[in-house]
Structures are given as C-alpha cells and as structure tokens.
Amino acid sequence: MNVLLLHPGAMGSSLGAALVASDHQVRWVTEGRSEATRQRAEADGLTAATDIADGSAHAEIVLSVCPPEFARTVATDVAATGFDGIYVDANAVSPDTARAVAATLTEAGATMVDGGIIGPPIRAGAQNLVYLSGDADAVATVAEMFRGTDARTVALDAAVGGASATKMAFAGWTKGSSALLLAVRAMAEAEGVTDGLDHAWETMIPHLPEQLRRAATGSAPKAWRFEAEMREIAATMGSVGLPAGFHEAAADVYGRLAEFRDQPDVDPAAVIDTLTQPTPEA
C-alpha cells in the first residue's frame, strides 16, 4: 500500500517503521515539521513529501496520528486536496470528534476508518492494540495493511466513533487515575502529611507508592499530549450524560506538567512539587 503518515511523532513513526518493514511505501510531510521529526522519519525509512497535496496525491491510505487538538485541522487539510482513498483517524479523540472528522472526509469523497490506539509505540518488541471501526471493507483493508506487525488490529462491529469510544474509556481510567493519584499526593505534600499518607499506603494499599512513581515518571514527559486527550474524554463523558469534571480536572493536572515535555529522566519529587505550585490564575 501507499500510505501518507501525518505526522511521525513517537507513536506514528513507530507505526510507519512497521509498515515500511512490511514492504509498504510510507510518506510523510516535511512542511512545518521539526528537525526532530525529520530525524525520526529518516531513521524509520519514511519517504519525504513536500506538502499534504504532494503526499496525498500518491496515497491510497492516509494515517493520521497527531495530538488530538489537531485532528480536525489535519482532516480538513487532507480533504482540501480532494483525497478520495481511506483516511484512518487514529487520534485520541471523542466519538463526536471522530464523527465530525468523518463528515469532513466523506464530503470530500474519502472513506473514514475510526482508529483507537491503546499501548506504547511498537519498538523493541513492544506491541499495541489498534481498534478499528467504520466501513467494513475499509476496516478490513487497514487491518490487512498492519498484518504481521506488532500493531494488533481489532475490528469492531461498530460505526465511526466506536474505536474512539473504546480508546476514551480505556484512557479515561488509566490516564485519569494516574492524574488523580498525582493530585492526591500533591495535596498531601501541600498539607505536610506525606509521612502519614505513606504509612497509610504502605499499610493498606502497599502497591500505591510504586504506582505513584510510575505515574510521575511515565506521565509527566507526555503530559503535554494528555491534557487535550483528557478534555476529549470529558467531552465523551458529557455527551452520554456522565460527569465531565473528573477528566477536566485531570486535564488541569497534566497541563501543569507541560514543563516536563519529552524529558527522559523525571524526578517524581519534582513532579509533585510542580503540582503544588500556584497556577497563574490562582
């Protein structure tokens, strides 16, 4: 298959590398991208295209893997080229956002496949799950494209929005609970009762100290992406009549940790200290 990957960040580039290894042609767009993105794309064997029009002109499938706040813009840019192939929106967005993206692409003549990625970038033997929903024939084409890679596709018997809803539900717990744990620890730090909390955890819930460490070191470097994802989850909750406040608060927690973006070694104590600092609005 000829694939246009928008844009090769940590997750997207790993998927692109897997597709290249399976003898697919994968292009990416250089326009507006950083030097780090260029280095990643070249290392993974992706072929450069100057702009989206150039890239989509050669593509049978467009694979969008970008921060969720850019999902609609990327889809609009692709639709403007007249692309009429299969468009896979594999972003962490709400079902309503996925359906809005689908409407944009359908109007341009493309077929939308809704994707939801759960798990890490597929490198060094790591695997993830890629849930797919929408047009059955298009879903089957995308699943076949990934066959033999470490991206394990799961075709859902659901319309566009189903894969995104699955992703929202999963991340609503995993990333939402990590944000809550970090916030609770910051509250104890601010009140000067960490010794008491440590004693209670070690006595009653002994796995929590290690879970807190993983939440800090694993989430803080990616918090700049998680903030928008939490807002998409909040929107999903609200759309079905459930409280959105849990994940709006989680978005606030992750927003406060933006300074740790892409840092390889994060000190958990520094993460908690950052959360205890007053925000500019406070």
Summarize it:
The protein has 282 residues and is of the alpha/beta class. The protein has helices at residues 10-21, 35-43, 52-57, 71-79, 95-108, 136-146, 162-191, 194-204, 208-219, 223-239, 245-255, 268-276, and strands at residues 2-6, 25-29, 47-49, 61-64, 86-89, 111-118, 128-134, 151-155.
Please give a handful of descriptors for the protein shown.
single chain, 282 residues, alpha/beta, Rossmann fold, N-(1-d-carboxylethyl)-l-norvaline Dehydrogenase, domain 2, 8-stranded mixed sheet, 54% helix
Secondary structure topology:
Layout: E1 2-6, H1 10-21, E2 25-29, H2 35-43, E3 47-49, H3 52-57, E4 61-64, H4 71-79, E5 86-89, H5 95-108, E6 111-118, E7 128-134, H6 136-146, E8 151-155, H7 162-191, H8 194-204, H9 208-219, H10 223-239, H11 245-255, H12 268-276
Parallel strand pairs: 1-2, 1-4, 2-3, 4-5, 5-6, 7-8
Antiparallel strand pairs: 6-7
Helix pairs in contact: 4-5, 7-9, 7-10, 7-11, 7-12, 9-12, 10-11
The overall number of domains is: 2
Cα-based radius of gyration, to the nearest Å: 20 Å
Strand order of the main beta sheet, please? 3-2-1-4-5-6-7-8
What percentage of the residues does DSSP assign to strands (E)?
A: 5-15%
